[in-house]
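Reopening this ticket.

The earlier resolution said the output was attached, but the attachment link was broken on my side. Pasting everything inline this time so it's all in one place.
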Amino acid sequence: MSVAFRRESDEEHLEPKFERPIAPGPNLVTANGLALIGEKVVALETAIAAAPEEDRAALQRELRYWHTRQTTAEVVPPPAPGTVGIGSRVTYRLNGAERTAHIVGGDEADPAAGRIGFQAPLARALIGAEVGERVDFAGKDEAIEVMAVG
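Inline output:
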C-alpha cells in the first residue's frame, strides 16, 4: 500500500504547538504591571487545576510564558516629578492634537486604552522629556510638545 494512503493518527496532521514568544530586551514593569502578572499566574494555575486533561497543554504553555515574565520582571522606580518615564501619564501635543498616554511595561500595554509599552516608538521619544520640552518623532524635529506629566 502506498504511503499516501496510510494514516497513523490525526495527531501527526495537527499544527505544531510553539511556545509564546518573549520580547527581546529587558522586562521593565511598573509595580501595577508586576501585580497584574501575578494575578495572571494565579488565574492560570487555577484554570489548569480545573481543566480536563485534554485542555491543559495550551494553559500550561500560557503559564510558562507568564512564569517567565514574572521571574524576569524588573520593577522600575517612579520617574522624577515632571520627567517622562515608565509609569508616567503624559499629555502631549502631536500634529496639533492634544493626547494623553500612560507609559507602561510591554505586557501591560493596551494602546486602545491609552497605555503604551515603553518599547513603542512614541514612548521612546517621550521618555526623558520634561514639561514644555519639544522632542523629535517620526523623522520630524520637535514634532511632539510635552504638555503635562503625572
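Reporter confirms the inline version is readable. The chain has a mean pLDDT of 91. Residues 31-50 form the longest helix (20 residues).
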